[in-house]
Amino acid sequence: MKVLFNPSRKPASADLPEWRSRLVLGLLLTALTILIARAVYLQALNKDFLQQQGQSRHLRIIEQNSKRGSIKDRNGEILAISAPVKSIWIDPKVVREANATPKQVRQLSNLLEMSEAGIQERIRSDRRFVYLKRKLPPEKADKIAALNIKGLYFKHEFYRYYPSRELAAHILGFTDVDGRGQEGMELAWQDVLTGEDGKRRVIKDRIGRIVEDAGQIRLPKSGQDVVLSIDSKIQYLAYRELARTVKEQHAKAGSIVALDIKTGEVLAMANYPAFNPNQRASMKNEVIRNRVLVDTYEPGSTLKPFVVAVAMETGRVKPDTLLETSGGRLKIGKATIHDVRDKGNLTVSQVIQASSNVGAAKIALLLPSKTFWEMLNRSGFGTETGIGFPGEASGQLRAYNKWRPIEQATMSYGHGISVSLMQLARAYTLFATDGELKPITLLKRDTPAIGQKVISRETAQSVRKMLELAVQPEGTGSGARINGYRVAGKTGTAHKRLEKQKGYASDRYISSFVGFAPASAPRVIIAVMIDEPAAGHYYGGTVAAPVFSRVMEGTLRVMNVPFDDSLGNLVTSPATPTAPARLEARG
Is 461 left (phi over 0), alpha (psi -120 to 50) or beta? Predict the structure, then answer.
């Protein structure tokens, strides 16, 4: 019988060599020592590493949007302001893992006014950050939050709102969806209006929810407010009357600007057609440009006072110098300059009053071309006004050494030169002051502006008297008169230059008027331009002068400017037409 167990036999382990057990024990101790040393190194000597690794998985730094500065009018009325809104974004991977229900997607689609297919397309994206909708009102964002869709998040932002809508749109401009200025003062003062975004640390869980605020790094800093020189009451009046006239005259467009003569401040500046900056999606490129500063045109007879001023400054003529207007026609080479009718012999003052093209051309031909050019250049033509508005046009004033006699003659009544309406309004500060060209500004200015002397006090006052005559019943600008105030100004009627070929359109006009009041102590300049009136009238005295009258009257009342003439000073009289600024070529 085989014995299976022998209690006297020693276990097999007892046969192992002693060195082997010691080796195993040594290896275990060595491994334990290494682990302890590594733990001490990481926990005590190099703890930043572990913290960094943990933070990289859970700690995030998020941006806090700063509030853009407001834009206000001179009286503190808000013209542009940033309101808090929320933007909706998703982490598509989290949304897919959470299996958003068809009902949730349908409700989200209705609230966002987006198609369900569009939302599903974003959910299928490979990215981890996808916007669904920007700039939602807080109340709508709250309804979306109530859907409890996992992976859908909110970002606090600001929406730029313009309470005045179209009224000051061309001055203010607008911002893009990220709050950056794109046009107008929003663009010109971008660096001032823009604040500094803040930063804070937060701890998020694995699906991106903020579970703890770890502290502020930098507080958001709001942008600075910008206070404009614009008076909202005058701006409303200017826009209303301009829009009314453009519609009544079936015109292509119109522009108007009002300047405070003492300070050089722009009190109002409007264009029509206009746009609503609160509805950016519907804006069209052709209506967003500020025509007062960006567009140029040939000013027509509104330039005549400048040729008279330089001729008086150089001693060529005096206000009572008599000129023969040659039967209303003046031939220079192959071209003929003409008036609307034969006005006989005219004094220099009557040339302005009756707006004689022939008389103005004869005065211009008395001048050296360089002298005439220098006067126009010093009056601000051919250069920017310095107002600092984006895209401002400098106009065109060709070098005098390239002028032919006919070009110098037509320059006297506003042909061969292009100006902006703002340039023209500013240039008239020469006659509204004692011969100074005033600097202008769109920002509120509390002190009088110091201008640059261009013509003498005597010349400025003489031309001012001529401009008063132009607004009398016998002048071309009688439609600009105001009850209780003396007015000085000049009409302009010019054929439009053809864009794609040489010459001028026979049936398209620019009607304009520039003037100031009260004439005894000028306070406000207003310039009006109506582009292509098509309701049967096109003379500046008929189309543009009445706009000037209504806006100027309201402006003087808003500013509490005292009367300088008796009430009831208006006498009904039709405006005397002036020939459109053009010439006829003769073979």
Answer: alpha
| Domain membership flag for residue 502 | yes
- Residue 459 shares a structural domain with residue 524: yes
Positive or negative, the CA dihedral 501, 507, 510, 515 is positive
Same domain, 176 and 85: yes
Amino acid at 292: V
239 lies in the same domain as 213: no
**Domain that residue 71 falls in:** 62-112+131-227
Q: How far is CA 43 from CA 31, 37, 181, 280, 581, in A?
A: 18, 10, 51, 57, 90
Same domain as 385, residue 243: yes
| DSSP class of 581 | B
Q: Are residues 189 and 256 in the same domain?
A: no
Angstrom CA distances, 19 to 13, 30, 31, 33, 514, stand at 13, 16, 18, 21, 114
On whether both 397 and 528 belong to a single domain, the answer is yes
The residue that leads in pLDDT, 222 or 480, is 480
The answer to the question of residue 572 being in a domain is yes
Dump pLDDT digits (tens) for 383-427.
999 999 999 999 999 999 989 999 999 999 999 999 999 999 999
Residue 301 designated active-site: yes
Q: Given this model, what pLDDT does residue 391 score?
A: 92
List, as one string, the DSSP characters of 311-355.
HHHTTS--TT-EEE-GGGEEEETTEEEE-SS---EEEHHHHHHHT
Q: Which residue has the higher pLDDT, 56 or 109?
A: 109
Q: Which helix (H) or strand (E) holds 511?
A: strand 504-517
Mean pLDDT of 157-184: 90
332 and 208 in a single domain? The answer is no
Q: Which helix (H) or strand (E) holds 132?
A: strand 130-136
- Strands 335-338 and 584-585, bridge-based pairing: antiparallel
Q: Please calculate the CA angle 231-233-237 and round it to the nearest 5 degrees.
A: 115
Do residues 309 and 243 share a domain?
Answer: yes
Last residue of a domain, one of 208, 227, 246: 227
- CATH code of the domain containing 196: 3.90.1310.10
Residue of 301, 355, 369, 478 with catalytic role: 301
Phi then psi for residue 569, to 5 deg, are: -80, -5
How many degrees, rounded to 5, is the angle at CA 197 between CA 193 and CA 200? 160
Top pLDDT among 41 and 245 is at 245
Inter-CA distances, 186 with 85, 161, 396, 417, 454, Å: 20, 12, 27, 31, 34
The number of domains in the chain is 2
pTM (2 d.p.):
0.82
269 neighbors 257 (Cβ within 8 angstroms)? yes
Question: Residue 45: which residues within 8 A CB-CB, separation 6 or more?
Answer: none
Residue 199 is predicted with a pLDDT of: 67
Instruction: Specify the CATH number for the domain of residue 506.
Output: 3.40.710.10
- Does some domain include residue 517? yes
| Residues 257, 268: Cα–Cα separation, whole Å | 6
Residue with tokens 């909706």: 88
Q: How confident is the model at residue 490 (pLDDT cuts 50, 70, 90)?
A: very high
In whole numbers, what is the pLDDT of the chain averaged over residues?
A: 86
Is cis: bond before 273, omega within 30 of 0?
Answer: yes
